[in-house]
Amino acid sequence: MNRNPNENANVNANESPNEHEHERQDRCPSHDRPKAIPVPESLERAITAETSLRARMPHVAVGLASGRGAAFVALLRATEPGALPVRTRIAFGALIPVGSAWAVFAARALTERRPLYGHDRVLAASIALAATTATTALGTAVAASRGTTTATTTTALTGTTPVVTSALLPARARGRRRRLLRLRDELRAESP
Questions:
Q1: CB of 158 within 8 A of CB of 150?
Q2: What three-state secondary structure class fits 66?
Q3: Among 52-56, 71-75, 76-80, where is mean pLDDT lowest?
Q4: DSSP class of residue 10?
Q5: Cα–chain-centroid distance for residue 70?
Q6: Of the four, 31, 49, 56, 87, which is 20 to 30 A from 110 by CA?
Q7: Residues 19-39 as b or e (16 or more Cβ within 10 Å = b)
Q8: pLDDT for the residue numbered 39
Q9: Rounded distance, CA 54 to CA 143, Å?
């Protein structure tokens, strides 16, 4: 369908040609999205640090190690020719979801195209707390099933240190997230 280029000019004769120019100026020409709002330099530095390759490399390491570990344990469990002992099945059943949770966490943190403002640390601390608590509980239950008080007490006390340490991490991570969000809001309020 061929249109006359002057056709629109005749239809909208009452409108000035520059009437909609302000809309075009507010749009990024290559993507037809709103232009970026100017960001204060200190906020830009913080965002750059959060999204840099160096900041993302630990997530790559966690994702690869935990994903491969979970896959290896699942493959080992699936290819075992005979029935595994109950304790081994419980251990494998616990290791696979823990490894998978860390792999999903890393993938989510890596695929976000915006600063996470510490949200990744809150999630990591929550996963760590759940994993250490479950590991300690299962280890203590296995030790108790064997019937020795010494083994049960030793396992429970050994597992208590990582549980207590990981119990402190979510509060610390939430505090860091609150500080980052407060800083972001303050810097946004200062920007023109």
A1: no
A2: helix
A3: 52-56
A4: H
A5: 18
A6: 31
A7: eeeeeeeeeeeeeeeeeeeee
A8: 67
A9: 42
Q: Is there a contact between 146 and 123 (Cβ–Cβ < 8 Å)?
A: no
**What is the reported pTM?**
0.61
Say if CB 174 and CB 140 are below 8 A apart: no
Distance between CA atoms of 163 and 155, rounded to whole angstroms?
A: 12
Distance CA 27, CA 40 (A): 21
3-state secondary structure of 82: coil
Q: At what angle do helices 86-111 and 53-79 cross, to 10 degrees?
A: 150
Per-residue pLDDT, 73: 93
With 0-12 / 13-18 / 19 or more C-beta atoms within 10 angstroms meaning exposed / middle / buried, residue 109 is buried
For the chain, the average pLDDT equals 79
Question: What ranges do the domains of the chain cover?
Answer: 43-116, 118-178
The length of the chain in residues reads 192
99 CB-near residues (< 8 Å, 6+ apart): 66, 67, 69, 70, 71, 73
Lowest mean pLDDT segment, chosen from 16-25, 71-80, 112-121? 16-25
Question: Nearest CA to 119 among 43, 185, 50?
Answer: 50
Q: What is the DSSP string of 147-187?
A: T-HHHHHHHHHHHHHHHHHHHHHHHHHHHHHHHHHHHHHHH
